[in-house]
């Protein structure tokens, strides 16, 4: 049990990062669930009575006419779980089960089609007003059913049991699993075809590709010596960083940096302070707001990054959510790594 | 021990208690089926329940009632009964009030199996929904078997040795779980969630798959009330009274392990229920197993159903892990029981 509780805090932050929750992490909030649990002891009835009026069925919104896309349907596609997914008509009651998918859906112009989203879907701001059906780990199946979705978009953080269960309940689920920046672009295309927004997706992907190429060209023009070593801190106790297989690692490389954790072979490895001191990073990126604590760590004042004042707190959302904003992250990362450019 | 007597007074009290538990269970079941984050108006609920082959209610409400709520209500009852029966068995066998369904390493073994399933999938193994429960079940039985082998001395199976082997093997597999989790990447949280126990997302397949173990275990225990009573007097006394001690022990330990393993594989590690419900039942109907076993099964079913309903409803739209609620409700209740007993 003790193991579980010490894990709890870390898990919450990591879940924030992995599940693209971003700043919604409650670092000190290890006990909120227990507090709530105690507070509500014995008031099952009250709690349930309160929950009753929560759901008001949403009238099927008259969907914007998708006449141009109509000829594409029915669409059949294989998703990341190997499942053959068929849509007979353009979906107009979509539920997204990850903040990244919410961002993608909006970017594809599907905002009007969304009937509910996952927790922590906070971008674009309109998404915050949509009802929430849980997150990939704790999903309210009945709430989800009540919105009568014709398409549920999930990413691989959704456990296979949950995807299987949803399909068993007769819900159409499409699972995506982008692992790299090019994957994100092809996922956008795929979702565009699936939802009758292929043209929008093509335009979006073309502009994202152009922006990525622009950064790549700038990196190519840099002198070969201008490759700052970067350490990203995902969590401070124990030290945890982003290694190969994570988007952060890929972004650092694309932005003309060298990830000091490149040799760890894991996407989210724990790393010892000694290794960081030995690697002597030129830039330190912090995904949690603890710059003061980092600067006070014994021995860290000798690091290049600390001496030159290149320790930055970044908003993790854009760096880890597998959506179109990864390209924003790439551009701002390039600016951080090569301020003289 | 007054409870071992079966005078007319305690007999009527026992009958009252059985009826009471049965009634409580029925009311709880109906209430739980009627409650949820989505409102199902009572007339529609009745309509749906009376017309299982398609009622006038909207289809999604029918799915919610038949595919989500009813299986979950039944599963909560099954898991509660299984954990509580396993608890009674182990507490009786070991004559140890702190014994619970997991005392022989079932939970840590199941956790090890679940972790292996997740790590395996992370590294390209099968990703079917059945893998995790299957490996959890296998892990639970495997550790229990290891505990038997380690606890064995010659052809005898001393209970103290078994208990200690259980502790050691549990510690070992917990350590392995922690080590494996490092390789689980982002799937780590799946294991941690699983270890907190939950009935969310379970359906008819789970209800059906736990049934043979629950039925088999209950059947064995139903004819083992007297042997369990004799164990309360100690192994030697039981032997002297003509009980085939070693064979009985093996049979009872195995049924307890099967009950606990089936529960863990379907719902994760739900703590405390299997520890406190047997004690509560003992306070209500006394220590004689003829009464204790059915009372504990009913009470366990009711307790888990109630706590699962709280888990479903308390924090919207996410769910609390039921293990958290059983522990939060269970600990104070347990302390109260202990103090009450001490005061006598």
Describe the structure.
The complex is a heterodimer of chains A (341) and B (344). With 341 residues, chain A is an alpha/beta fold. Chain A contains 14 helices and 12 strands. Chain B has 344 residues and is mainly α. Chain B has a single domain (24-343), classed as Orthogonal Bundle (ABC transporter involved in vitamin B12 uptake, BtuC), CATH 1.10.3470.10. Chain B has 14 helices and no strands. Chain B has helices at 8-34, 42-50, 59-94, 106-122, 131-151, 159-181, 188-196, 204-222, 225-232, 235-240, 245-267, 273-285, 289-313, 322-343. The longest helix of chain B is centred in the first third of the chain and has 36 residues, at 59-94.
Assembly state of the chains shown? heterodimer
The CATH homologous superfamily name of chain B equals ABC transporter involved in vitamin B12 uptake, BtuC
Backbone structural class of chain B: mainly alpha
Helical content band of chain A: 40-55%
Number of strands of chain B: 0
Shape of chain B: globular
β-strand number of chain A: 12
Task: Please summarize what this structure is.
The complex is a heterodimer of chains A (341) and B (344). With 341 residues, chain A is α/β, with parallel strands linked by helices.
């Amino acid at each position: 049990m003790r193991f579980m509780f010490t894990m709890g805090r870390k898990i919450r932050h990591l879940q924030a990062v992995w599940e693209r929750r971003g700043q919604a992490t409650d670092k000190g909030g290890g006990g909120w669930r227990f507090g709530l649990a105690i507070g509500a002891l014995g008031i099952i009835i009250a709690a349930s009575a309160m929950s009753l009026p929560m759901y008001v069925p949403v009238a099927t919104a008259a969907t914007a006419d998708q006449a141009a896309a109509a000829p594409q349907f029915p669409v059949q596609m294989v998703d990341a779980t190997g499942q053959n997914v068929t849509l007979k008509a353009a979906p107009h009651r979509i539920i997204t089960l990850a903040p990244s998918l919410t961002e993608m859906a909006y970017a594809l112009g599907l905002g009007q089609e969304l009937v509910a989203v996952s927790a922590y879907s906070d971008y674009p701001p309109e998404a915050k007003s949509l009802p929430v059906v849980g997150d990939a780990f704790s999903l309210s199946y009945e709430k989800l059913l009540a919105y009568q979705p014709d398409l549920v978009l999930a990413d691989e953080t959704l456990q296979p049991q949950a995807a299987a269960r949803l399909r068993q309940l007769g819900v159409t689920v499409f699972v995506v699993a982008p692992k790299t920046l090019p994957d994100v672009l092809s996922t956008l295309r795929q979702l565009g075809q699936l939802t009758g927004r292929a043209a929008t997706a093509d335009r979006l992907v073309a502009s994202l590709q152009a922006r990525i190429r622009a950064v790549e060209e700038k990196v190519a023009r840099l002198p070969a010596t201008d490759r700052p070593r970067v350490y990203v801190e995902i969590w401070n106790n124990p030290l945890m960083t982003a290694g190969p297989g994570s988007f952060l690692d890929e972004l650092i490389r694309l932005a003309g940096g060298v990830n000091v954790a490149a040799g760890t072979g894991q996407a989210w490895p724990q790393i010892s302070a000694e290794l960081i001191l030995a690697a002597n990073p030129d830039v330190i990126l912090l995904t949690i707001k603890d710059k003061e604590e980092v600067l006070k760590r014994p021995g860290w004042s000798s690091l290049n990054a600390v001496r030159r004042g290149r320790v930055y707190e970044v908003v993790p959302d854009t760096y880890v959510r597998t959506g179109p904003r990864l390209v924003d992250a790439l551009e701002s990362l390039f600016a951080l790594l090569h301020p003289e450019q | 021990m007054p409870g071992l007597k079966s005078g007319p007074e305690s007999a009527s009290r026992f009958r009252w208690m059985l009826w009471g538990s049965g009634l409580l269970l029925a009311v709880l079941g109906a209430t739980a089926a009627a409650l949820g984050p989505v409102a199902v108006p009572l007339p529609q609920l009745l309509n749906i329940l009376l017309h299982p082959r398609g009622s006038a209610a909207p289809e999604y409400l029918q799915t919610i009632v038949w595919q989500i709520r009813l299986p979950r209500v039944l599963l909560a009852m099954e898991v509660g009964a299984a954990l509580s029966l396993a608890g009674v068995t182990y507490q009786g066998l070991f004559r140890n009030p702190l014994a619970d369904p997991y005392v022989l390493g079932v939970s840590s073994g199941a956790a090890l199996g679940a972790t292996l399933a997740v790590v395996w999938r992370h590294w390209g193994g099968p990703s079917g929904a059945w893998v995790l429960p299957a490996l959890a079940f296998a892990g639970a039985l495997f550790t229990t078997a290891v505990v038997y082998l380690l606890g064995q001395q010659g052809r005898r199976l001393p209970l103290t040795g078994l208990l200690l082997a259980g502790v050691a093997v549990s510690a070992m597999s917990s350590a392995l779980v922690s080590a494996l989790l490092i390789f689980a990447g982002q799937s780590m949280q799946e294991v941690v969630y699983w270890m907190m126990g939950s009935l969310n997302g379970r359906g008819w397949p789970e209800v059906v798959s736990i049934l043979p173990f629950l039925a088999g275990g209950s059947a064995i225990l139903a004819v083992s009330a007297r042997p369990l009573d004799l164990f309360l007097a100690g192994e030697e006394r039981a032997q002297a009274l003509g009980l085939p001690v070693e064979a009985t022990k093996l049979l009872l330990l195995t049924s307890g392990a099967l009950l606990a393993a089936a529960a863990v594989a379907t719902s994760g590690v739900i703590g405390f229920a299997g520890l406190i419900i047997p004690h509560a039942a003992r306070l209500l109907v006394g220590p004689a197993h003829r009464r204790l076993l059915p009372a504990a099964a009913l009470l366990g079913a009711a307790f888990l159903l109630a706590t699962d309903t709280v888990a479903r409803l308390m924090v919207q739209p996410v769910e609390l892990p039921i293990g958290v609620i059983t522990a939060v409700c269970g600990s104070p209740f347990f302390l109260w029981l202990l103090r009450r007993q001490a005061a006598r």
